[in-house]
Design goal:
Length: 161
């Protein structure tokens, strides 16, 4: 619940949809990353259920987002062809945890960014994963919050499906 999350690909259709769901789950989303839309912001419904919107800033890079927001988690919603560069950008910036939702990422790309992450001490979850949720606290990814609850049991899934 203390994590500050940025969304790489927040301005795309999947990123928009799941950022809305993450905010509704109590996740602290502090920014998005899209070099073509840097300097803008995106309005989302208030995560706490109250009326109104919250404006989430869009940054040109992960490093800029980290510097401006103290983000410590990135979640990636970009197409497979762009996933390797998005992950390597997060790794190069020193993002402590990166959650890669994208499926269909080539194995060679995964091997390359996994090796880079290991060398830099960066933790990766994914690719092709549903994300991470602490029910009632925070949700980073695509897990529906209404199918989980707090307790002593955890679930690990290889695939988003």
């Amino acid at each position: 619940e203390a994590s500050k999350v940025i969304v790489q690909g927040m301005t795309g259709s999947e990123g928009m949809k799941h950022t809305t769901r993450m905010l509704a789950s109590g996740t602290t989303v502090v920014g998005g990353v899209n070099p073509r839309k840097a300097g803008t912001s995106v309005s989302f419904p208030q995560g706490d259920g109250s009326e109104g919107t919250v404006d989430i800033p869009v940054f040109g890079s992960v490093a800029e987002a980290m510097e401006a927001t103290d983000a410590d988690v990135s979640v990636i919603f970009v197409p497979p062809a762009f996933t390797k560069s998005a992950v390597l950008e997060a790794v190069d910036a020193g993002m402590p945890l990166t959650v890669i939702i994208t499926e269909g990422v080539p194995v060679a790309d995964t091997a390359e960014f996994f090796t880079a992450a290991q060398a830099k001490g960066v933790r990766l979850i994914g690719p092709n994963c549903p994300g991470i949720i602490s029910p009632g606290k925070s949700n980073v990814g695509i897990i529906p919050a209404d199918i989980t609850g707090p307790g002593k049991i955890g679930l690990v899934s290889k695939s988003g499906t």
